[in-house]
């Protein structure tokens, strides 16, 4: 019998698997499928991860102090994880926030930088000189987080966490969990039974669920309640550039923009009633096909209304590769932002973000043997190490932390009948 089974070997689950297995004498198992090589609507495989990519932005600045702490603690450990695993996943390229003066986003970033003493450069003239290839509005506020920020490779971070978990003695099972139940064993003790969709079974004293967007799509919770989350479909555009242009852009930081933008930016991208919208952009990254891509996504709050209502919708969103109006608009925007570089081709990609009404991750015990962690809100890749660590603390007896308390991660539930997933 395992002490802890972690369900979901994605960003948070893999970190949790590593932390749980680092506790002496604890028998731990991490269960989750590998990334499928081809997402295909006709294939029976219907569970996917939000980390299937080569780049995620990392930064300490965040309008919410809790997210800022989660990020800072994780970033502080990146180099150690790289060293211990032998897998490099972090590039400290810096993070540039730009926004219309007075806009809530940029003013909150400013406040966070000041309150937390984060080293930044705010001199627009100098930053324009440093990043001459970026065509961002000169009259906006620019805040450049120079260190402890940049990009991580989420696939490689997941690999690193799993490699260390294996070293700690964690079992890793490649499967999809279909059902988790609480039952009484021959000794009269309550135990958790975990069944995979290929009919394999194991038992554990405790289960930690970390299945990302797929929490409600299988029988994992053993109750009529499901977490109150909104599954937000997201589009990104990958713009292929030449290797020499990638070289030319080698100093480029990760960028996030919120505000009015330049003329034409939001023509085909949703904006709010005040004419503000936003995007994030990653510097050139070499993808597994050997080509270099810049990646641009518009900020989740401006994604439009492609509601995911059912498990079938979730699968369809992940598997379809058609170019949407939005992904074409993102391609046009990226060319406008870096006018000196010719984009060779554009490739759309899709993913799903788990939004919570609190905008924070959910960390909760459904009962003394079943814990849940989900609700990345589109920001958890960079902070997955600390969220995984907290989740293990929670399942081992409660979050004991001077700065972060359980009430900061309160989970809201709704009736399964209110959710078609
Ligand atoms: C387009 C996009 C851009 C993003 N950009 C950023 C960014 O720049 N910076 C940032 O910090 N974050 C970013 N994020 C968010 C980040 O990727 C997620 O918050 C993070 O991956 C969430 O981690 P997770 O472990 O909760 O879920 P996931 O990483 O999705 O992992 C869940 C895992 O559970 C598995 N699973 C599901 N159901 C089962 C089951 N029944 N049995 C077994 N396994 C199961 C899945 O296969 C998956 O591997 C972005 C997300 C998207 C979609």
Could you explain how this protein is built, in words?
It is built from nine helices and 21 strands. With about 425 residues, it is an alpha+beta fold. It has two domains: about 190 residues, FAD/NAD(P)-binding domain (3-Layer(bba) Sandwich), CATH 3.50.50.60; about 180 residues, D-Amino Acid Oxidase, subunit A, domain 2 (D-Amino Acid Oxidase, Chain A, domain 2, 2-Layer Sandwich). The strands form four sheets. Strands 1, 2, 9, 10, 11, 12, 19 and 20 form an eight-stranded mixed β-sheet that branches. An eight-stranded mixed β-sheet has the order 6-7-5-15-16-17-14-18, sandwiched between helices. Strands 3-8-4 form a three-stranded antiparallel β-sheet. Strand 10 and strand 11 form a beta hairpin. The chain is globular, with a radius of gyration of 21 Å. It starts with a strand and ends in a 6-residue tail after the last strand. Bound molecules: flavin-adenine dinucleotide. Flavin-adenine dinucleotide binds next to helix 1, strand 3, strand 14 and strand 18.
In short:
By secondary structure, the chain is an alpha+beta fold. It folds into two domains: 2-51 and 155-229 and 358-418, FAD/NAD(P)-binding domain (3-Layer(bba) Sandwich); 95-146 and 230-353, D-Amino Acid Oxidase, Chain A, domain 2.
CATH architect. name of the largest domain: 3-Layer(bba) Sandwich
State the end-to-end distance.
31 Å
Pattern of helices and strands: EHEEHEEHEHEEHEEEEEEHEEEHHEEEHE
Shape: globular
Number of domains: 2
- Bound molecule types: flavin-adenine dinucleotide
CATH topology of the largest domain: FAD/NAD(P)-binding domain
**Approximate helicity band:** 25-40%
Poorly predicted tracts of residues: none
Number of helices: 9
Average pLDDT taken over every residue = 93
- Number of E-state strands: 21
* Main sheet specs: 8 strands, mixed
- What amount of the residues lies in strands? 25-35%
How would you classify the helix and strand content by structural class?
Answer: alpha+beta
Radius of gyration: 21 Å
Which CATH first-tier class of the largest domain would you pick?
Alpha Beta
- Looking at CATH, the homologous superfamily of the largest domain is FAD/NAD(P)-binding domain
């Amino acid at each position: 019998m395992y002490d802890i089974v972690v369900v979901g070997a994605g960003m948070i689950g893999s970190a949790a698997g590593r932390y749980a297995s680092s506790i002496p004498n604890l028998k731990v198992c991490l269960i989750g499928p590998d990334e499928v090589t081809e997402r295909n609507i006709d294939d029976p495989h219907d569970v996917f991860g939000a980390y299937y990519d080569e780049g995620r932005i990392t930064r300490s600045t965040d309008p919410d102090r809790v997210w800022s702490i989660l990020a800072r603690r994780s970033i502080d450990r990146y180099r150690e994880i790289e060293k211990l695993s032998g897998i490099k996943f972090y590039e400290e390229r810096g993070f540039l926030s730009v926004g219309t003066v007075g806009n809530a986003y940029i003013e909150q970033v400013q406040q966070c930088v000041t309150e937390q003493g984060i080293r930044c450069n705010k001199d627009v003239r100098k930053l324009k000189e440093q990043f001459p290839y970026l065509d961002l509005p000169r009259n906006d506020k620019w805040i450049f987080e120079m260190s402890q920020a940049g990009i991580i490779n989420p696939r490689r971070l997941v690999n690193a966490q799993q490699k260390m978990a294996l070293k700690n003695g964690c079992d890793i099972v490649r499967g999809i969990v279909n059902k988790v139940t609480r039952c009484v064993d021959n000794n009269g003790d309550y135990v958790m039974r975990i069944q995979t969709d290929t009919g394999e079974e194991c038992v554990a004293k405790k289960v930690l669920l970390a299945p990302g967007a797929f929490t409600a799509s299988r029988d994992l919770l053993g109750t009529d309640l499901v977490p109150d989350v909104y599954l937000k479909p997201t589009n990104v555009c990958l713009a292929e550039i030449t290797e020499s242009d990638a070289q030319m852009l080698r100093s480029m930081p990760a960028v996030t923009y919120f505000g009015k933008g330049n003329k034409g930016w939001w023509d085909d991208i949703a904006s709010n009633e005040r004419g503000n919208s936003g995007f994030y952009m990653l510097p050139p990254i070499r993808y597994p096909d050997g080509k270099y891509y810049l990646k641009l996504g518009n900020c989740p709050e401006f994604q439009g209304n492609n509601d995911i209502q059912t498990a079938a919708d979730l699968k369809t969103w992940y598997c379809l590769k058609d170019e949407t109006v939005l992904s074409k608009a993102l391609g046009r925007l990226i060319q406008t932002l870096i006018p000196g570089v010719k984009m060779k081709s554009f490739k759309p990609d899709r993913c799903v973000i788990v939004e919570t009404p609190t905008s924070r991750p959910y960390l909760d015990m459904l009962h003394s043997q079943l814990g849940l962690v989900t609700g990345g809100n589109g920001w958890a890749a960079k902070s997955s190490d600390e969220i995984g660590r907290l989740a293990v603390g929670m399942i081992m007896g409660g979050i004991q932390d001077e700065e972060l308390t359980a009430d900061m991660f309160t989970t809201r539930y709704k009736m399964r009948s209110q959710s078609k997933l």
